[in-house]
């Protein structure tokens, strides 16, 4: 069963703009061999888009209140947020009442070693996915410790399965595990300690 991030506060046009920005990021990292003049013209066009967006942007304090409307899962986070162009974005499905997973394929913007996912990107995906698994299981918190083991390199351009499961809740301490697999093999495994605490949402 898919965990629907898009049911509340849907904004299809914003999602479409974020998808377009993802394309631009990917294409920029992939592009090679363009002349300086061509690339300067592209920079001008992208800056014109940024000028339009900045002109329409509210004060940051107002935007923060807007971003944190409601009490559901955010739409702007850097892993699963459909509104955030740096999010792949992951789309989670429930495996059982304490376990979630997402399948994603990452491209060159996420590269670390040649043709492989950057280790910090893997950490980001796992930190967030463990956090979402906690939310799905019903008790969530902030990351206090995150221990990662990089078993083998994580490939770009291949489907990756990112899984997380809440293992235990002991008072305010939540223990959660997860992994990134490719082709059935574990690339990265994670153990997290989360503390049940929630900073106030901007109002
Ligand atoms: C539905 C949700 C979907 C969204 C998912 C998003 C996932 C994203 C997750 C993140 O990335 S959160 C951002 C990264 N994490 C942080 O910025 C946390 C920064 N640290 C803190 O804010 C505080 O240190 C923390 C909230 C973790 C704990 O502070 P508290 O003041 O609430 O804890 P306190 O000092 O009362 O300690 C409570 C217990 O936790 C233990 N503890 C606290 N911090 C610990 C730590 N870092 N390591 C180990 N144990 C720790 C502490 O020893 C104690 O154990 P005992 O009860 O047995 O004495």
TrEMBL record:
GO MF, one annotated term: hydrolase activity
InterPro entries named among the record's database cross-references: HotDog_dom_sf, RHA1_ro05818_N, THEM4/THEM5_acyl-CoA_thioest, Thioestr_dom
Membrane topology: Peripheral membrane protein
UniProt EC number: 3.1.2.2
Domain RHA1-ro05818 N-terminal helical: 6-62
Localization: Cell projection, Ruffle membrane; Cytoplasm; Membrane
Protein name (record): Acyl-coenzyme A thioesterase THEM4
All copies of domain Thioesterase, residue ranges: 117-187
UniProtKB keywords: Apoptosis, Cell membrane, Cell projection, Cytoplasm, Fatty acid metabolism, Hydrolase, Lipid metabolism, Membrane, Transit peptide
Gene3D superfamilies: Hotdog Thioesterase, Thioesterase/thiol ester dehydrase-isomerase
Catalytic reactions on record: decanoyl-CoA + H2O = decanoate + CoA + H(+); octanoyl-CoA + H2O = octanoate + CoA + H(+); tetradecanoyl-CoA + H2O = tetradecanoate + CoA + H(+); (5Z,8Z,11Z,14Z)-eicosatetraenoyl-CoA + H2O = (5Z,8Z,11Z,14Z)-eicosatetraenoate + CoA + H(+)
SUPFAM superfamilies, per database record: Thioesterase/thiol ester dehydrase-isomerase
Xref: CDD domains: PaaI_thioesterase
A Pfam short name: RHA1_ro05818_N
Family assignment from sequence similarity: Belongs to the THEM4/THEM5 thioesterase family.
């Amino acid at each position: 069963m898919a965990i629907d991030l898009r049911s509340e506060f849907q904004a299809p046009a914003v999602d479409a703009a974020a998808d377009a920005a993802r394309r631009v990021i990917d294409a920029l990292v992939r592009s090679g061999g363009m002349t300086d003049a061509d690339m300067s013209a592209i920079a001008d066009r992208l800056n014109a888009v940024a000028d339009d967006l900045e002109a329409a942007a509210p004060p940051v304090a107002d935007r923060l209140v807007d971003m944190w409307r409601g009490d559901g899962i955010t739409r702007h986070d850097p892993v699963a947020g459909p509104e955030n162009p740096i999010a792949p974005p992951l789309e989670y499905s429930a495996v059982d009442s304490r376990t979630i997973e997402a399948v994603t394929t990452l491209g060159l913007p996420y590269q670390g070693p040649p043709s492989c996912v950057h280790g910090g990107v893997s950490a980001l995906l796992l930190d967030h996915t463990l956090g979402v698994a906690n939310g799905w299981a019903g008790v969530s918190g902030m990351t206090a410790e995150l221990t990662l083991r990089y078993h083998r390199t994580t490939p770009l351009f291949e489907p990756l399965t990112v899984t997380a499961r809440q293992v235990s809740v002991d008072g305010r301490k939540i223990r959660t595990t997860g992994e990134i697999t490719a082709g059935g093999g574990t690339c990265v495994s994670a153990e997290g300690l989360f503390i049940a605490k929630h900073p106030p949402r901007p109002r």
